[in-house]
Protein 1
Amino acid sequence: MENFTYKNSTEIRFGTDRIDNEIHDAVAQFGDKVLLVYGGQSIKKSGLYDRVIDQLADLQITELSGIEPNPKINSIREGQKLAKENDIDVILAVGGGSVIDASKVIASAKFYDSDPWDLVVQANGADRMKLDQVPLVDILTLSATGTEMNFGSVISNPETHQKLGTSGPNSPAISFLDPTLTYTVSKWQTAAGSMDIMSHLIEQYFNHTTTNDASSGMIEGLMRSVIKWAPVALKEPENYDARANLMWTATMALNGIVRSGNEGGWTVHGLEHELSAYYDITHGVGLGILTPRWMDWVIATEPKTVARFAQFGRQVWNIQGKDDTEVAQAAIKTTYDWISSLGFPMTLPGVDIKDETNFEAMAEGAIKSSALDKVAYVPVHKEDAISIYRAS
Ligand code: NZQ
Ligand code: ZN
């Protein structure tokens, strides 16, 4: 096991009936000038917007709406302007990962005087870790990214075809996780979110440290939770146990705990962020298409990985058998079948990516921004990345 430091100060308030009683004080403790950030119409349709506004009636609310999926840098620019003009004390983000990710960068951008894209690419001397950050309270409405308890954000710049990860010094101050708020999430987004959770676990399970049984066991248990509950949530959108398990599993999958003591990993996210950057597709859907193709490529390229895939097959999918290669291959097929059963289009043409025009640029972008040739579970070079896109 590698050395590690783990610190995470996000306060999680999990469960039903908490928002109406607690949101006011949770926000107001940081000040009375609030930037309320949200996406499209989902929180208005569900009534959540009215509930929040009622509770915060005595505070000064500035609104930033219209944060799109795969949040764009222009929204951050708008948020920066509002945060500065109104001298915002606290941000309240209400929505999915895109809304919370955008809010985290706005929280830093209030204290930066130039273009906030610098904060994402760390250009022009910009360093988010050294900037102050407005405290962030969030109400999560979609189980997927884990952003509610981590330091990361992923921001897109359509002009440059870049979708890049960035980290700030703080995770959210308080995250409200009420599973009933996810009852209205569509089948498409429920499937995509569940795949995102599964992918976060896969990316961290297949890493360079082979002796961290604490991590492996936690990840295997969390994977079994997604595998069990995603189909239930799709069939019965208002099944509390399904929504609650997906929500807490999503948070646990990417709050840094399960990767503590491990080194390396993470390939498919780098490849997927390029798909979203060029084609603006749903993150989890891109992961669902690429993941089994990456797995096929890994065991074909590096036979030493078969043992780990066999462990994955036995512990996660309960595949019996003595021959590691057979169990490993069955595990990849079972993973493919589970993803497909969630209702995904399982090919790139299925999401309207019908030719290879951008594969070369995407492969170069993925390797550059995610160092896939250095830190990936099995190093990925340009031709490898192109072959994984082609196989998809
Ligand atoms: O905009 P609204 O109207 O709110 O609709 C959203 C949006 O259209 C809708 N939605 C959210 N909650 C809903 C709902 N619809 C009905 N009922 C509800 N309760 O769902 C759509 C997608 O929302 P989005 O926030 O984009 O989804 P998600 O939470 O999956 O976030 C995806 C983004 O997070 C990034 C992804 O790359 C992508 O940009 N990621 C962030 C990570 C992080 N910060 O740690 C890690 C991840 O790997 C990921 O890259
Ligand atoms: Zn993800």
Protein 2
Amino acid sequence: MQPQPLVLANWKLNGDRQLVTSMVSALRDAADSLHGVNVGICPPAIYIPALTEACYYDAIGVGVQHISEHPKGAYTGELAVSMVKEFGVDYVLIGHSERRSLYQESDQQVAAKVAQVTSAGLTAVVCVGESEAQREAGETLTVVKAQLAAALQGLAQSSPALLVIAYEPVWAIGTGQTATPEQAQQVHAEIRSWLQQQLGDAGKDITLLYGGSVKPDNAAELFAQADINGGLIGGASLVADDFIAICQAA
Ligand code: PEP
């Protein structure tokens, strides 16, 4: 059985309180067209309480874009899993390419964060993907599999049901240059088969998202691919009509 479709909004360093309320209200109005699709929003962390309050009666998941790999201590500016859990967070993005490139988030940190998140019972959304140079050098699968291995190392004893993988080719993020459905499906199929080799049948049930310039006009074709179970949406998740159209395509 295919995992249930999931579409997550990654607002990055964008949005405000007004966007929280207007997005929740637009998703509520569209709820009848979104049956069977899990939808979640990852706003900047300061808006989490406003989001959990606004969507208290709605089937909208709440996510954070970043957490510490440490449970507590002298780490100025960081947020621990136990803290975001207290505020009703369901999903935690880990290893986004912007965190990897701008803040040097390593595979070791990814593994430590997956361990923190899944042992707390939250869902770890691990982002993997190659740069343009790596794709041109034929290294896509080597890079992606090394990133996946770090995620599984962190998963350790936790349930694979708490793991979501987002394949996001770095060259497609925020560039308007989407992977073709065939390019995306090819990597997703490899990810699926690698997960099955490592985890057996549980690997079949892991949700695989595609991310990288998904828009209302290319979402349906991407989500129609056999191993693409939804999307991680950046720019287009800031406009309610666009985000809802993408969720409807899932
Ligand atoms: C992302 O940041 O995860 C992303 C996919 O961004 P965009 O949709 O803007 O390419």
